[in-house]
């Protein structure tokens, strides 16, 4: 068992990056506004995105290379397109997850430090962890965080079910009107995560190989991924249930302010479950968002560093450090000078992620089905079918959204 747990890692990092705004904010909001009516969207988008996420660790463990090196084999244009798309989305993604983390920290540890200062503190702490402890420390830390997050969330969900006296409806709903459809797009855009995390996962897989000096078999890598992915499904349903059971009956709406939202979130759970739940909900919420902030601050610089090296065909010794600094400066600039409202920031980031999803889906599918992947690790017929359906779905849904703007 100990050896098995040691082999896990990138899949849990994937879960840590995925279980964040999509779950704590969007899933809870979906439950609060629609009850259990959007469970169809949660399960459908997990199915649609599954193969494209899975192709990251599949390719990396089968070839010993990341998806970025695979993109380079498809043509430098694909790699450049990835770099441009990432540069457009990474700052809003980092700003969105950090501001939610800061808001929760304010409500959990006291508002003697405001959200802006907490934003700086959290980014600085994550920067120190990543540049001192590096991947090995991140790997160990995420295992602790994910276990803590899962246990506290499941306990809170179980108590909400036990204490609920309201009649529960599982009638599935299709949002109508531009505002509700925009929320649906945002909900599915980051559920369970943006598709570019498949690239991050492949990088973490190759980094795991370097630190352990062992090449994991693709079977272990896929098992690791599936454990993390099932965790995102389970916790996604849990947060929808919490929103539906605790918040939906009150008819209250959420604030777009990070600080106010986090207070509402924790207070509503506490009012329903009892004061004892404050610590459990607080820990679950904070660990959810801190893990996402930490992993995104690692992954975006790591991917941009690798992209830069591959495009210019030469190594950059301090590329990861420089991209980390650029990301922190860009994140703080967006928050302090352009867009400080949590609701608008999250909506922008999630919609951008959904609209860029077809690129990652198509690129990953072409690469994993090509001669660049060992034949025995190319997709099965079932994965081919799901992949083709997923690409058509993501393209069609994006076009539909653009036509109603």
Task: Describe, in plain words, how this protein is organized in 3D.
By secondary structure, this protein is mainly α. The protein has a single domain (2-404), classed as Amino acid/polyamine transporter I (Up-down Bundle), CATH 1.20.1740.10. The protein has 15 helices and no strands. Helix 6 packs antiparallel against helix 12 and helix 8 packs across helix 14 (342-368). The termini are far apart. The relative contact order is 0.22.
Brief synopsis:
The protein has helices at residues 2-7, 10-18, 21-34, 39-63, 67-74, 76-109, 115-163, 178-189, 197-212, 218-247, 258-273, 277-312, 319-338, 342-368, 381-404. The chain has 405 residues and is mainly α.
β-strand amount: under 5%
Output the CATH homologous superfamily. Amino acid/polyamine transporter I
Q: How widely separated are the two ends?
A: 52 Å
The CATH topology assignment is Amino acid/polyamine transporter I
Q: Tell me the total number of β-strands.
A: 0
Work out the count of structural domains.
Answer: 1
Number of helices: 15
Largest sheet: none
What number is the mean pLDDT? 83
CATH architecture: Up-down Bundle
* Secondary structural class: mainly alpha
Residue share in helix? over 70%
Radius of gyration: 20 Å
Low-confidence stretches: none
Helix and strand element order: HHHHHHHHHHHHHHH
CATH class: Mainly Alpha
Tell me the overall shape.
Answer: globular
């Amino acid at each position: 068992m100990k050896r098995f747990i040691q082999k896990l890692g990138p899949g849990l990092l994937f879960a840590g990056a995925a279980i964040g705004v999509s779950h704590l904010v969007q899933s809870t909001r979906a439950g609060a506004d629609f009850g259990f009516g959007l469970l169809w969207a949660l399960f459908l988008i997990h199915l649609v995105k599954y193969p494209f996420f899975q192709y990251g660790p599949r390719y990396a463990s089968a070839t010993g290379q990341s998806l970025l090196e695979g993109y380079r084999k498809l043509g430098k244009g694909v790699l450049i397109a990835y770099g441009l798309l990432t540069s457009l989305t990474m700052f809003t993604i980092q700003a969105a997850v950090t501001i939610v983390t800061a808001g929760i920290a304010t409500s959990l540890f006291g508002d003697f430090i405001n959200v802006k200062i907490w934003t700086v503190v959290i980014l600085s702490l994550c920067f120190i962890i990543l540049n001192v402890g590096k991947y090995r420390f991140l790997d160990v830390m995420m295992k602790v965080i994910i276990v803590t997050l899962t246990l506290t969330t499941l306990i809170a969900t179980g108590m909400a079910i036990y204490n609920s006296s309201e009649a529960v409806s599982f009638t599935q709903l299709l949002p109508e009107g531009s505002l509700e459809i925009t929320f649906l797009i945002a909900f599915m855009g980051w559920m369970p995560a943006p598709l570019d995390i498949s690239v991050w996962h492949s990088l973490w897989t190759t980094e795991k190989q370097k630190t352990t000096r062992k090449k994991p078999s693709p079977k272990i890598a896929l098992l690791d991924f599936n454990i993390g992915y099932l965790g995102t499904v389970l916790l996604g349903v849990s947060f929808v249930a919490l929103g539906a059971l605790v918040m939906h009956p009150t008819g209250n709406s959420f604030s777009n302010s990070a600080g106010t939202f986090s207070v509402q979130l924790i207070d509503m759970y506490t009012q329903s479950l009892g004061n004892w739940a404050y610590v459990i909900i607080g820990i679950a919420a904070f660990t959810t968002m801190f893990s996402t902030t930490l992993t995104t601050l690692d992954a975006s610089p790591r991917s941009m560093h690798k992209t830069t090296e591959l495009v210019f065909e030469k190594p950059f010794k301090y590329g990861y450090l420089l991209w980390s600094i650029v990301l922190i400066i860009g994140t703080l600039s967006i928050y302090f000078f352009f867009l400080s409202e949590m609701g608008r920031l999250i909506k922008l980031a999630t919609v951008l992620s959904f609209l860029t999803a077809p690129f990652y889906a198509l690129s990953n599918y072409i690469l994993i089905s090509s001669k660049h992947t060992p034949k025995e690790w190319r997709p099965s017929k079932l994965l081919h079918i799901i992949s083709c359906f997923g690409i058509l779905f993501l393209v069609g849904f994006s076009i539909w959204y653009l036509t109603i703007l």
